[in-house]
Amino acid sequence: MSHKVSIIMPAYKAQATIKKSINSILTQDYPDIELLVVVDGLSDETYSVVESMQDSHIKAFKKENGGVVGAYKYGISQASGDYIMFCDSDDTYKPGYISRAVELMEKHNCDFVSFAYDVVDSHDQLVEEIHNTLPTGFYDQKKIQEEIIPHLVFNSFDRTQMFILLVLRWNKIYSRSLIEKLYSNLDENCYQIEDNVFTVNAVLNANSFYIDNDFKCYNYFISDNSISSGYQGNDILDRYFYSVEKIAQLTKGNPKISPSQVDFLAYDNARIVFRRCCK
Fold it and tell me: pLDDT tens digit string along 72-123?
């Protein structure tokens, strides 16, 4: 019996990119899927584009603008799949992503699988290949406690090894049971580095996971108009530090996580804000 996969796509001002993103999911070779598109604020024609695609796998929702966490949290509440995945509305899945992800989840009976991915420019040209710092393999509870958690929040100021595990939602597939554990801690007020918060939360609640650095699952697009180009409001530092404080709360009392990890993360995000403000 196949396992149903729910893919959640939060969308905001994505009318120019979302059709390509959706098609990369609908053309996957794994049939038992539902795509939940949550349009976060009706500021352009994104919702109309989604409705016009008229595919039975698509479920479209619209809500008042409240940020990406609120959007994907709503999507989770509507999902019926055995496994949960994510895709941003300006990115695309690579062929075979879902079937590979399900295969590894079933083979290793784990809580999530994390993959490598490509960074791509607006002309579909490869910019960079990104892999997990951790090597390919299975990580049980003993390895998580001894090898992963002591380096989970912040690993190194070397940007290629800053995080021992890629701190992203969309390069992973998750068991429904894990997502249900995380749900109450999904904070809609996290607007920056919200994926760091999500990943820390996932690892702390996982019994096991698998790393696959041999398969690049996803095209992460960078452009001047992308959401990933960054929020530039006057409260940007407060937004970063709010998420850092959330990570501090999640890890508080864990003897394997040094408070200095959180301090290093805060320092690095202050550097990011400084660079943005100097542009």
Answer: 999 999 999 999 999 999 999 999 999 999 999 999 999 999 999 999 998 8
Phi then psi for residue 150, to 5 deg, are -65, -15
CB 74 within 8 Å of CB 45 = no
For residue 11, the cross-strand partners are 39
Maximum distance among all Cα pairs of the chain, rounded to whole angstroms: 55
Beta pairing partners, 172: 114
Q: Where are the alpha helices (DSSP H) in the chain?
A: 18-26, 46-53, 68-78, 97-108, 141-143, 176-182, 194-205, 236-251, 259-277
The Cα-based distances of 195 to 79, 103, 158, 191 in angstroms read 20, 24, 19, 10
- Give the Cα separation of 27 and 145 in Å (integer): 38
Q: Does the pLDDT of residue 230 top 70, yes or no?
A: no
H helices of 123-193, where? 141-143, 176-182
